[in-house]
Amino acid sequence: MAYSPLVRELIDAFRCLPGVGPKSAQRMTFALLQRDRNGAQRLARALEGAAEGVGECEQCRDLTEAPICALCRSDQRNHAVLCLVENPADIQALEEATDYRGLYFVLKGRLSPLDGIGPAELGLEVLATRFAQGVVREIILATNPTVEGEATAQYVAEMARDANIQVSRIAHGVPLGGDLEYVDSGTLSHAFAGRTHYG
Ligand SMILES: [Zn+2]
């Protein structure tokens, strides 16, 4: 089918979203253009604003437009405890499911040498700097229960032990191969509460 250039461009642009194939890209494009021009304008503004304005927290690597995110700045949180997660969405899941009051560190991925993801890509030198500052006393490893998530947990556990920091790992019950952000909050809460000394 011959779409006009701007329609074609919009359909192609939607394909950058995870899980969006040609059919759904087409559906979203027509929905916006036929029925919701205001929604389309708003989406365009939000995308542009976020793409330009959102960076990462210098301390925890969570998404934020400030140099240091609100959690890391908060004096209501325990700065001696860090929880290591793979994705920013995991923070949201843990905040909703648990009464955790410490801080986080976001890897934005997991060790995967075959895909070229090593310690540098995960910001582990930033984490090492934090360990060296001497404020952090404990780290809870909440990476996903996948082979790569486990390898990442082991790597960070070693770093932490070298810095004399106490290490625990969230309990199983999170389904093997599962993503933390999709686990129901009861299971997640249980896994978090049942974390065990690691290594
Ligand atoms: Zn932060």
Explain what the structure shows:
The protein has 199 residues and is of the alpha/beta class. It folds into two domains: 49 residues, Helicase, Ruva Protein, domain 3 (Orthogonal Bundle), CATH 1.10.8; 135 residues, Dna Topoisomerase Vi A Subunit, Chain: A, domain 2. 45% of the residues lie in helices and 14% in strands. It has eight helices and seven strands. It is elongated.
Query: What's the alpha carbon Rg, rounded to whole Å?
Result: 20 Å
- CATH architecture assignment of the largest domain: 3-Layer(aba) Sandwich
Count of folded domains: 2
Helix content: 40-55%
Q: Mind telling me the CATH class of the largest domain?
A: Alpha Beta
What is the name of the CATH topology of the largest domain? Dna Topoisomerase Vi A Subunit, Chain: A, domain 2
List the secondary-structure elements in sequence, H or E: HHHEEHEHEHEHEHE
Count of β-strands: 7
> Order of strands across the biggest sheet?
4-3-5-6-7
Low-confidence stretches: none
Structural class: alpha/beta
What small molecules does this complex bind? zinc ion
Give the rounded overall mean pLDDT.
91
